[in-house]
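[09:14] KT: can someone run the structure on this one? pasting the chain below
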Amino acid sequence: MHEVCAATGVTNSHFETFELLLEQDARLLCIKNNTGATPLELIPAEHYTAWTDFLESILDIYWIPLGRRRFGQIPSPALTDCQPNSRPIADPSNALPLVVARMLAN
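[09:31] RB: done, structure tokens below
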């Protein structure tokens, strides 16, 4: 979701991909990346108009009007409550030591 929103060019394929992800779980819009930004915060300013038009065109599909929504009706996904980088993945047991990895990278 973040990559689609942050893309430098805006094409119909970006909007199609965005909508496919929304169909899976619209709450993906709430998940923050490692810098603490949600997907929509990453849209380049020069694409605001195109994204605004697109989001307005799908507004009635994915967002329930506030008057018809009950608080607590849709629970927040667990990942939206986590701070960025708060769930590190452990190194695999067969990982190279950092010293060796640095030498290989050089």
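[09:33] KT: thanks! The chain has a mean pLDDT of 83.
[09:34] RB: yep, looked fine to me
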